[in-house]
């Protein structure tokens, strides 16, 4: 993440202020009759592995269109983000820009991005029934949608929560629930803890930072300028979170719950964790962990992790921002291509849909905002033959296809149908400040009250200076 200083922010602000007032998006939008002769330029983070393939297929179906994709190196994120900002101010930025490089909150930079909503409304082929519109609603701010959610990413480490089947009564707590929140998990722990023979913690990847990041909207809202870290609710929350963090947990360490090699090593580690943790987190692509065919599964009954309002937390990383300086035809072409990419190729016997399925399972792109995508993945899965997967270097367990099928169905029927909430909440400089204070609290250098008061004063001062 970029480390800003206030001096840098002041310089960039002065530069950006010079460009205020230009490139405002009109309220109405007329859909063009043809895209013939148009060129679509895209900057994308390199984890969109299937996008170039979709671009080639789109060009075949639309001979007059040219799509130029530049895949950016994640090792050069900081310099690329700065370069894109300069290109936007100078008018030389591409038409589509991956959301990881966009600061959606900064009113000095958002003027350079177009509102997707009037373009979507004008698109004769955009049917809202084909999309999980809760993802679009979550990304829209102040009546505008500046990031088209091609996928809706879950915050790292979030996803599904599974109950420890070895703890009597715990799995029953999941029955009848549509989702579960961290507050629910803490409450369940408080009721079950007295019955345990030895201390058990929330989950392997849980610490105060993870807890606060997932519940941040209860205490802080950057858009509204709301700061409530000094509240008793926050003090009690981080106190409970610290008590439920394993003593050997390294602060802020990534939540990695599987090895590169699946199978025995993973199952052994899951078995070991059944003695220490009440819950387990699993991303949708970690399908082995659901243990659907295990007679004595250690963790069972997956539920989507939500906030206290039952909303699925999603991030803007896999959104696409649209250059407000593009022509109307280019903007319409951008939406037409993204819709094509989100829906994936039409025919399940097309080799490209097999590649899409392979990419989805390998890279976790099951979270498409398009309903048809999941249906076509299932069609492809039903038509796939094991030799296709072996040819791609996979050696699959006999039950893999059924596990994958159940995972896709469960995700589509449960998680994607929930209301959603966008987790972006602050510039990097504020996120860094929160991390620093919580790290001191995690190490026992300050108390919960001191951490809360320090965050209240520090973040309030930051907002005043940023205004």
Describe the protein's architecture and organization.
There is one protein chain. The protein is of the alpha/beta class and 467 residues long. It has 2 domains: 29-153 and 315-405, Periplasmic binding protein-like II (D-Maltodextrin-Binding Protein, domain 2), CATH 3.40.190; 160-206 and 244-314, no CATH class. The protein contains 16 helices and 13 strands. The strands form 4 sheets. The protein has a 5-stranded mixed β-sheet with strand order 2-1-3-12-4. A 4-stranded mixed β-sheet has the order 6-10-5-9. Helix 8 (232-243) packs across helix 16 (448-466) and helix 15 (428-442) runs antiparallel to helix 16. The longest helix is centred in the C-terminal third of the chain and has 19 residues, at 448-466. It starts with 5 loop residues before the first helix and ends with a helix.
Which features does this protein show?
about 475 residues; alpha/beta; D-Maltodextrin-Binding Protein, domain 2; 2 domains; five-stranded mixed beta sheet; four-stranded mixed beta sheet; globular; disordered N terminus
Compact summary:
The chain has 467 residues and is an alpha/beta fold. It contains 16 helices and 13 strands. It folds into 2 domains: 216 residues, Periplasmic binding protein-like II (D-Maltodextrin-Binding Protein, domain 2), CATH 3.40.190.10; 118 residues, no CATH class.
